[in-house]
Amino acid sequence: MYRTRGTLLGVVAAVAAAGLLAGCGNDDSTATGTPTLSTSAGTTSASAAPAPSSESQAPAPAPEGETPAPEQPAEPEAPAEEPERPAPVPPQETDTGHLGAKEQTFVDELAKQGVTPSSPDIALSIGNYVCQGVAAGTSDADMATFVNAMAGSDPSFDPAKMPVEQAGQIYISTAKAHYCQ
Question: Minimal CA–CA distance to 150: which of 180, 115, 178?
Answer without folding.
Answer: 115
